[in-house]
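Input (structure):
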């Protein structure tokens, strides 16, 4: 038997070696049967019979079929000869149909592809083009065995081969955005594909499509090396992709053919930075401003007596009115302290009762994106018409330390494999993938991935294998048997074992293949029916060296249910189990992976977790502030009276007042349904404490420094002291409250709610200070006057309280040392120079502040999400998907409408899909990496009669209905549409509406890869009348790594969408309000950074306005004081932004909230000092500045600076990076700059430019002095008269002395006279 086989082989070789190559002769003819050496093919591998004979004339139906399949060979009936039978033409048509399904977008490419195979199969000069190299005996169904050709060489010139390849290499697959050539070039993919590799793949019988082996020999023209005698390499003319086909097909579109593209100018370069004279413009302006501010000599103001102006009168009247009002108010509050406290507690309780219905907003979308913002409206439109973007749960796994190796593949040659890409790790990854299941209370059964997963091809009743899980094991259909499969394979006479590595190499380069080219014969498609692109399975590779990747990527996609849907809770449970399992796996010492992970819920979970963990830090911060206030408010005049003069309970009362004001504010807004947030809970108490503590210190210190007048009651003294300081407290509190109320005009929800809560809290704090705290002071003063200890009220101290004012340590220090040094003439010049330099430098830095908030900053240190972000930026090769969404108002059913959207042959050169394609040519500017898929293109290709996709039943009960491609041709003999004469297929309106639902419901398979189920069934939304009211086209961003890139990508996508909208509105019948917009899940977070600079300027300007207006009004229209007040606060804000740039603090919504807070705190540092200076009657500006610095500066330093700093320093120990950066760093900057400007710069500024002495106040003091002098004169006269009377009595001269009542009446008259003068004035 062996000898017979050897003899047959020998004879076959002899026959083949003696084959002739002559014109007009065939090398093979007619079909012999199935190729016995090929198995598991996607179509029957029918091979021709060896038959060296003359070409046959083609007539009748034979000719019609030839003209249909191979029109380039048709020379007219009667003049046409060919080497193929009608059966061979039918088989060739079937084979070409599969390839044409992806190439038909470009008619010239499809024509060249058919040209190639028609020449080798049917050319009348076949023997001059091919050389049979291998035959086998094949037994036919009827008859004797025949020799069949199972391998041959085909000789082509490189001119023809290169031109054919060039016409096809850029043809796209709209559903994926990739190139069709990638599926037709084996392991090389689109980037490494060459004409030789392309032809080799087509001639490889292991690809599941070729029925036999074809060895394509590409010969340069004139080169005969290795060419058998008589063979003439075929040198036909291949069409260029920008040429029309002989059958009338139009040139390929720009997206599929670069030669067809119009001349599109490159995008304009980005706007260059602002420069003047070749240097940074902002820097130059800052330098010029610095020179101007320092070029003028600053004159020292001197007081020149003059007549009292109207402004002076208004100022005095305002101060007198407020002082008298608060004096009377304070007296009443101090007289009835218990009643006041009770009423205050009742009011607070009523307000705070609203907390029972408080709502905390934790959803980042609700916090940072305004409901009426463009991004929110676009998200609402997208989620309403399409399903919300699925929930992503992801693992990125690495295996550092494992050595890579080189695998010598039989088919692909030496290949680099990293230590990660190993069989044991792939199996371990597969085991990890299948672990997650749990008991669900919502479903009342055990739940698993299938209950919540995104299943694009079977959404109604998915099984586990229908779930969209993208991972490397999907190339093996998640089958352990497929991973372990191996087989011996012979290639070019070499036999070697092929295994999972060969399959993986092929699939990573050709993920759309239904069958690899190895003898394993396995599919590359995932078990849920869709391809897994290499960038979704592996990461950390370069130059498409996928097997040398550094990371595996595994992604579970879950349906994004509404929060009201019970399955939302199931999805959240699944994600919790997912996190628990991967965290347990991470702790397992036997695990071979080092990995990072995340779930859709991770961001919110981690933010909530770190907030809860940092609550103790805030509590400690408030406790430190409380201890400081309690200690600092004490008088400590004597060691024996420490327990009496301490102010522990007063400090506690002050803290309680702050707490009650915050609770009242939160309760009130909860009553009316305005939600709160964690930002409010963290910031508002801190702000109100800073503001409230300042007022407390001013009031208490003023009381301690005051001496009770003779005959004055304690309550009257408290009222008088309150009358002195309450106008200043009102000035600051009212400024801040109005400031925050105006800040609520912000469109950003978090800023708006913060401003509302802060405004009412500040206002309530002032009200409670004027009531409850005054009552507490009255009770404490009563205790102190009784010499009772503070905490032990029953214990008395024998040492009496001194009646001298208690100035403490700070006031004398600032009066004797600090103020004189600060306001020395040389020091003042230095201070002005330094602060002006700071302002100019900060102005320059302000224009260079980084705008944005990287999402990793929202995570606490040590969070697993930080590792995930690091892995994501390092290993991912593509960015997030971006959808270009069309709204209602565009007619897709018209030819003009389809052409304005599609990108294939006959489409507009500036259509929707084409403009997106142009943008991807400049990824560094557009941030688009992969072009958009297009359901319109695939729908047109699906309708093309050149493919098997759209057919109609001709038999059976479904006759006339759509017939899927996997049905027999016997049942479905009719095409949906006829072949157009010009090659540009466009359905009529009726056909469009009839077949679109069939397209969207057609599951893609090998017979028809263009089916729309999974890719497009949710991308097209129609109303009840069939009109398309929404559709979307998905592209991909380039990898985006920070908020600046996300923001720039959003801006560029919107510019592109606006350009597309303008173009599509020009199509007849388009509604004028039709719109195309880009949608990415991150848009709602990053849109704020497009407008946050003008939004911030608007908010801060609104806050600055009341500080100026209120200051002017309460100081009696004192414009100069108001302007100086405003200037200093602006400088604090500008310098804060400048330091933000230096310290790496980005400008964002959280920073904006703190900057609004900075305005409020700055008012405390500045307004008290300004008012104190304005009311001073010292003779010179410098002396008035010294007085204000000593008296009010000491209270501001103790009440604002020293209250804030200890609490701020504690925040440095918080775990959350947001708190460390935006609460510790930024608040520290705000406090230090506020203190520097309020206690250093402002006194110097006032000493130069402060308002003059209020003449009305000066006149008032003069009248008081005159009255006092008159009283002293009258008293001296009275005393002299008494002595005279006594002397006269001794000399027996009798007289009646003036009665005491007379002296009293004299005194009363003088006082009344003085008051009359004041009233007249």
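Output (sequence):
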């Amino acid at each position: 038997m062996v000898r017979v086989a050897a003899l047959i082989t020998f004879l076959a070789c002899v026959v083949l070696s003696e084959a002739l190559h002559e014109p007009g002769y065939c090398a093979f003819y007619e079909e012999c049967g199935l190729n016995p050496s090929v198995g598991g093919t996607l179509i029957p591998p029918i091979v021709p019979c060896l038959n060296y004979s003359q070409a046959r004339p083609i007539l009748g139906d034979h000719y019609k079929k030839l003209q249909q399949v191979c029109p380039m060979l048709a020379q007219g009936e009667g003049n046409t000869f060919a080497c193929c039978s009608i059966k061979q033409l039918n088989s060739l048509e079937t084979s070409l149909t599969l390839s044409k399904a992806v190439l038909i977008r470009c008619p010239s490419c499809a024509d060249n592809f058919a040209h190639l195979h028609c020449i080798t199969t049917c050319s009348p000069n076949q023997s001059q083009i091919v050389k049979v190299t291998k035959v086998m005996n094949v037994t036919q169904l009827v008859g004797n065995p025949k020799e069949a050709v199972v391998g041959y060489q085909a000789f082509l010139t490189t001119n023809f081969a290169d031109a054919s390849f060039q016409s096809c290499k850029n043809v796209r697959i709209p559903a994926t955005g990739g190139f069709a050539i990638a599926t037709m070039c084996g392991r090389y993919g689109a980037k490494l594909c060459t004409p030789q590799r392309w032809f080799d793949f087509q001639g490889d019988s292991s690809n599941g499509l070729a029925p036999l082996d074809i060895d394509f020999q590409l010969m340069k023209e004139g080169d005969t090396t290795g060419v058998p005698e008589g063979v003439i390499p075929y040198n036909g003319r291949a069409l260029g992709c920008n040429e029309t086909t002989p059958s009338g097909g139009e040139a390929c579109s720009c997206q599929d053919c670069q030669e067809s593209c119009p001349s599109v100018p490159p995008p304009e370069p980005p706007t260059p930075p602002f420069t003047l004279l070749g240097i940074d413009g902002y820097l130059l302006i800052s330098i010029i401003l610095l020179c101007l501010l320092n070029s003028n000599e600053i004159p020292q103001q001197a007081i020149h007596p003059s007549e009292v102006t109207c402004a002076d009168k208004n100022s005095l009247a305002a101060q007198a009115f407020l002082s008298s009002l608060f004096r009377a108010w304070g007296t009443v509050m101090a007289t009835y302290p218990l009643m006041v406290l009770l009423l205050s507690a009742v009011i607070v309780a009523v307000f705070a009762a609203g907390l029972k219905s408080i709502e905390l907003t934790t959803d980042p979308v609700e916090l940072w994106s305004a409901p009426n913002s463009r991004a929110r409206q676009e998200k609402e439109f997208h989620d309403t018409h399409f399903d919300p973007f699925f929930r992503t749960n992801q693992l990125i796994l690495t295996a550092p330390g494992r050595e890579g190796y080189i695998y010598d593949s039989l088919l692909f040659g030496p290949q680099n494999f990293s230590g990660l890409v190993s069989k044991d790790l792939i199996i371990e990854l597969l085991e990890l993938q299948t672990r997650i299941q749990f008991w669900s209370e919502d479903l009342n059964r055990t739940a698993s991935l299938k209950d919540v997963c995104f299943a694009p091809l079977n959404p109604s009743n998915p099984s586990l294998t229908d779930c969209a899980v993208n991972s490397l094991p999907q190339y093996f259909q998640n089958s352990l048997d497929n991973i372990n499969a191996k087989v011996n394979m012979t290639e070019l006479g070499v036999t070697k074992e092929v295994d999972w590595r060969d399959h993986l190499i092929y699939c990573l380069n050709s993920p759309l293949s239904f069958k690899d080219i190895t003898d394993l014969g396995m599919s590359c498609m995932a078990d849920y029916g869709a391809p897994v692109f290499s960038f979704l399975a592996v990461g950390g590779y370069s130059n498409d060296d996928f097997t040398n990747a550094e990371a595996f990527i595994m992604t579970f996609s879950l349906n994004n249910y509404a929060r009201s849907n019970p399955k939302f809770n199931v999805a959240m449970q699944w994600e919790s189990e997912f996190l628990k399992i991967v965290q347990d796996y991470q702790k397992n010492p036997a695990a071979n992976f080092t990995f990072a992970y995340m779930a859709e819920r991770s961001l919110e979970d981690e933010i909530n977790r770190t907030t809860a963990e940092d609550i103790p830090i805030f509590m400690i911060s408030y406790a430190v502030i409380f201890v400081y206030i309690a200690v600092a408010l004490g008088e400590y005049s004597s060691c024996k009276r420490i327990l009496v003069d301490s102010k522990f309970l007063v400090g506690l009362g002050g803290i309680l007042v702050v707490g009650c004001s915050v609770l009242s504010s939160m309760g009130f807004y909860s009553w009316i349904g305005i939600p709160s947030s964690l930002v409010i809970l963290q910031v508002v108490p801190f702000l109100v404490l800073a503001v409230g503590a300042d007022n407390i210190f001013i009031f208490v210190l003023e009381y301690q420094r005051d001496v009770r007048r003779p005959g004055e009651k304690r309550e009257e003294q408290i009222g008088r002291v309150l009358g002195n300081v309450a106008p200043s407290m009102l000035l600051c509190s009212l400024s801040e409250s109005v400031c925050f109320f105006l800040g609520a005009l912000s469109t950003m929800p978090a800023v708006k709610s913060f401003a509302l809560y802060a405004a009412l809290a500040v206002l309530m704090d002032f009200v409670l200070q004027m009531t409850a705290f005054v009552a507490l002071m009255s009770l404490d003063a009563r205790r102190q006057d009784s010499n009772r200890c503070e905490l032990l009220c029953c214990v008395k101290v024998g040492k009496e309280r001194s009646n001298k004012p208690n100035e403490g340590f700070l006031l004398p220090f600032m009066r004797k040392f600090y103020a004189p040094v600060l306001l020395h003439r040389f020091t003042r010049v230095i201070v002005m120079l330094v602060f002006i330099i700071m302002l100019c430098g900060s102005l320059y830095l302000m224009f260079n502040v980084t705008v944005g908030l990287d999402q990793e900053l929202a995570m606490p240190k040590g969070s697993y999400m930080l590792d995930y972000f690091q892995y994501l930026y390092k290993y991912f090769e593509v960015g997030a998907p971006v959808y270009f969404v069309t709204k209602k108002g565009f007619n897709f059913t018209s030819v003009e409408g389809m052409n304005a959207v599609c990108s294939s042959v006959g489409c507009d050169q500036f259509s929707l899909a084409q403009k997106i394609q142009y943008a991807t040519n400049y990824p560094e500017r557009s941030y688009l990496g992969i072009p958009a898929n297009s359901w319109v293109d695939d729908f047109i290709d699906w309708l093309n009669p050149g493919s098997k996709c759209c057919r109609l039943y001709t038999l059976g009960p479904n006759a006339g209905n759509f017939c899927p491609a996997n049905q027999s041709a016997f049942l479905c003999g009719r095409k949906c549409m006829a072949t157009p004469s010009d090659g540009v297929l466009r359905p009529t309106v009726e056909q469009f509406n009839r077949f679109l639902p069939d397209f969207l419901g057609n599951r893609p398979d090998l017979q028809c890869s263009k089916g729309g189920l999974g890719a497009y069934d949710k991308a097209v939304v129609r109303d009840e009348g069939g009109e398309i009211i929404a559709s979307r086209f998905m592209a991909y961003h380039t990898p985006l790594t920070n908020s600046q890139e996300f923001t720039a990508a959003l801006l560029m996508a919107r510019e592109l969408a606006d350009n597309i909208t303008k173009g599509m509105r020009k199509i007849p019948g388009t509604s004028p309000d039709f719109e195309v917009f880009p949608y990415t899940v991150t848009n709602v977070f990053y849109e704020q950074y497009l407008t946050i600079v003008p939004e911030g300027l608007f908010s801060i300007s609104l806050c600055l306005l009341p500080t100026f207006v209120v200051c002017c009004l309460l100081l009696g229209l004192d414009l100069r004081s108001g302007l100086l007040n405003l200037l200093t606060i602006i400088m604090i804000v500008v310098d804060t932004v400048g330091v933000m740039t230096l310290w790496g603090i980005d400008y964002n919504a959280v920073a904006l909230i703190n900057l609004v807070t900075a305005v409020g705190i700055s008012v405390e540092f500045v307004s008290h000092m300004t008012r104190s200076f304005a009311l001073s009657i010292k003779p010179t500006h410098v002396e008035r500045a010294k007085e204000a610095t000593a008296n009010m500066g000491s209270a501001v330093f103790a009440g604002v600076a020293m209250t804030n700093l200890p609490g701020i320093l504690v925040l440095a120990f918080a775990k959350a990076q947001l708190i460390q950066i935006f609460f510790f760093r930024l608040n520290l900057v705000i406090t230090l700059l506020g203190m520097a400007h309020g206690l250093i710069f402002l006194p110097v500024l006032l000493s130069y430019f402060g308002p003059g002495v209020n003449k009305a106040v000066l006149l008032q003091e003069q009248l008081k002095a005159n009255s006092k002098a008159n009283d002293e004169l009258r008293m001296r006269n009275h005393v002299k008269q008494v002595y005279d009377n006594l002397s006269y009595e001794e000399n027996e001269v009798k007289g009646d002395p003036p009665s005491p009542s007379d002296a009293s009446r004299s005194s009363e008259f003088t006082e009344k006279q003085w008051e009359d003068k004041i009233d007249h004035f």
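Notes: Residues 749-785 form the longest helix (37 residues). Residues 1-18, 292-306, 1286-1290, 1292-1321 have pLDDT under 50 and may be disordered.
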